[in-house]
Amino acid sequence: xxxxxxxxxxxxxxxxxxxxxxxxxxxxxxxxxxxxxxxxxxxxxxxxxxxxxxxxxxxxxxxxxxxxxxxxxxxxxxxxxxxxxxxxxxxxxxxxxxxxxxxxxxxxxxxxxxxxxxxxxxxxxxxxxx
Amino acid sequence: xxxxxxxxxxxxxxxxxxxxxxxxxxxxxxxxxxxxxxxxxxxxxxxxxxxxxxxxxxxxxxxxxxxxxxxxxxxxxxxxxxxxxxxxxxxxxxxxxxxxxxxxxxxxxxxxxxxxxxxxxxxxxxxxxxxxxxxxxxxxxxxxxxxxxxxxxxxxxxxxxxxxxxxxxxxxxxxxxxxxxxxxxxxxxxxxxxxxxxxxxxxxxxxxxxxxxxxxxxxxxxxxxxxxxxxxxxxxxxxxxxxxxxxxxxxxxxxxxxxxxxxxxxxxxxxxxxxxxxxxxxxxxxxxxxxxxxxxxxxxxxxxxxxxxxxx
Lengths: 130, 312
What we know:
heterodimer; A: alpha/beta; five-stranded parallel β-sheet; B: alpha/beta
């Protein structure tokens, strides 16, 4: 039985900067993961529903517009409401270090800010995915 | 979670977990499929295939919406290639179907080919059955971008739509074998591009020459998927093909053929697995390989011996 890690790379809200998400998506593919990329301007509802249909192990949220404090916890809530309790949720983008503790308390397992190597994201996923 | 029970009661999460279990061959997979099988056989399975960049995903999105207008529930299986090097994949078809994500009557699942070379994943047929058992009316299966000979879709679909775009070659391309032979309906997408007329003519000429499918001549429909043009006519052609297929008895014939292929494939896999397990248990295989490589034994004799001893 082979292990196949499925990752949803999602861009919530009105942020149009997708280069980072695409770089991460490619790196994850090269690490052997199946990556479902949602595209831009997703609502929290769309992200949670896509995660359900695709039965992903990981949801990786990318946001550079500053709305993470509102959107990330909202997505965690919707994902749990749908009965998905063992999905690893991580985030990245333009997120001030001072916001990270609150995001973690809300259910985001780890936040990868600009400058992080894609290898560390891959290692983190491999170490924590269920 | 009792997956089959919850799936049959309408749980989308159960459907999703069932697909995962089957795709990854979890221990509960066979039991799930055994419980669901009796509930299958009702969905209309439509294959959408064609070269890379022909607009399959956009077309699937529009066709799905057309069926939703008719109050039908739709399942979509979108297949993308798995990297033969890393084993990973970018499953990027659903990005074209964003409007459908929140439609309760639509379920979209992306799958990687995971090594399969015929345009689909090995587990596509089972995923279709899962969606079928869940009560979905129409299942759209989008293959990877295919070339000329990846025709596994034939083994899984009731109706096959081959999507082509103008400008991909001349008339010799049109008469080669492969995907052009499997079409029940042709869709010329990006029909506003140069060469659409020419492609249409070439297809019609090819269909004239190949008069074999005399009871159904595949219609050629022009669409501009990203503008939603021609979709209604395309869907009507698909429905007509289904009606004709049922009236002529082809529908039943094709499904029997499908069941036969699936059974044989399952048997092949189980037998192969059985033999490999026996070989590794006996521990002599590496020696046999070495003796064949050294030309002490020939591979034909080795295989014959293995068959005799393992399948006694």
